[in-house]
């Protein structure tokens, strides 16, 4: 019998104060019920009773924009749930919000940051001052001992600076640093040729990233890149993305992650065939398959 997942992704906001050029949440269905405190509490109770969950990962759009954020977090804690929060951390540039989040004992704050300076990050988020606020948020969270992980999407606007981003985040004392290939849904699909680099183009910068990490003893992960472009075994992590996210009115399967990826005939001879996640169909439609080994 298949073991049930007891940790769910959960959306509590339909808004974001960034407008990332590759944002995959732009195609997320709008819930039938509004994100009110009462509706969210009912959904949490249902998840606990029916799905036997032990934890919730607040994600999709920007959860911190829900006006009842701290009440929602307090309710989750009252139910003894483990809580992880996906955020751009701009709200945590305000120190009183950091003190409030500290008292709630959040397990992990996963922060999206896509550059090592305002020029790159703000161009990607298309939100002025977002870099300054996100960087300040990370610093403030680390100052109170929060566990902070980061997610950086590798795109045309930043792939030449991966090692600099790594060193910048390490300097902020981030606990876990993740790099992730573009997911071509939502804005990622709409702006595909503006945001998706050819995998062959990023190879030398991935090599530079690996060398920087090794030289400075910085641990990080890299995912959603076909294995044939990853020469270093340490990067060959599982390419699976959590298939479910939960809006308070319905559980939905994020099929784009799986149905839009394929493996070619030439992939069958690869030693990593079973573990590799393959390549998005739209990538092959736009760029062809010549660069694949």
Keyword list:
single chain, 293 residues, alpha/beta, TIM Barrel, 9-stranded mixed β-sheet, two-stranded antiparallel ribbon, 11 helices, 17% strand
What does this structure look like?
It is a single chain. With 293 residues, the protein is α/β, with parallel strands linked by helices. It has one domain (7-287): TIM Barrel. The protein is 35% helix and 17% strand. It has eleven helices and eleven strands. It has helices at 37-51, 69-78, 95-104, 118-125, 130-143, 162-171, 187-190, 192-195, 199-216, 256-259, 281-287; strands spanning 7-11, 55-58, 82-87, 108-112, 148-154, 176-181, 220-223, 244-247, 250-253, 261-262, 279-280. The strands form two sheets. It has a nine-stranded mixed sheet, covered by helices on one side. Strands 10-11 form a two-stranded antiparallel ribbon. The radius of gyration is 19 Å and the shape is globular. The two termini are 38 Å apart. Residues 236-256 have low confidence and may be disordered.
């Amino acid at each position: 019998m298949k073991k049930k997942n007891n940790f769910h992704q959960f959306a509590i906001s339909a808004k974001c104060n960034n407008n990332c050029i590759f944002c995959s949440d732009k195609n997320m269905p709008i819930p039938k019920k509004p994100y009110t405190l009462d509706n969210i509490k009912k959904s949490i109770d249902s998840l606990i009773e029916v799905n036997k969950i032990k934890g919730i990962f607040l994600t999709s759009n920007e959860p911190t924009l829900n006006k009842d954020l701290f009440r929602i977090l307090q309710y989750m804690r009252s139910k003894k749930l483990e809580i992880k929060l996906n955020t751009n951390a701009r709200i945590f540039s305000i120190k009183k919000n950091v003190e409030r989040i500290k008292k709630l004992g959040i397990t992990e704050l996963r922060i999206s940051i896509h550059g090592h300076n305002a020029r790159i990050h703000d161009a990607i988020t298309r939100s002025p001052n977002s870099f300054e606020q996100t960087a300040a948020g990370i610093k403030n969270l680390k100052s109170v001992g929060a566990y902070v992980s980061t997610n950086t999407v590798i795109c045309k606007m930043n792939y030449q600076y991966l090692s600099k981003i790594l060193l910048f985040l390490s300097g902020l004392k981030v606990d876990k640093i993740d790099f992730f290939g573009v997911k071509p849904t939502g804005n990622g699909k709409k702006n595909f040729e503006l945001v998706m680099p050819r995998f062959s183009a990023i190879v030398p910068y991935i090599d530079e990233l690996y060398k920087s990490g090794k030289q400075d003893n910085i641990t990080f992960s890299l995912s959603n890149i076909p294995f044939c472009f990853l020469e270093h075994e340490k990067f060959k992590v599982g390419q699976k993305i959590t298939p479910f996210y939960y809006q308070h009115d319905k559980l939905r399967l994020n099929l784009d992650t799986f149905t839009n990826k394929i493996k070619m005939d030439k992939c069958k001879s690869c030693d990593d065939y079973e573990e590799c996640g393959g390549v998005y169909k739209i990538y092959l439609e736009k760029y062809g398959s010549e660069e694949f080994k």
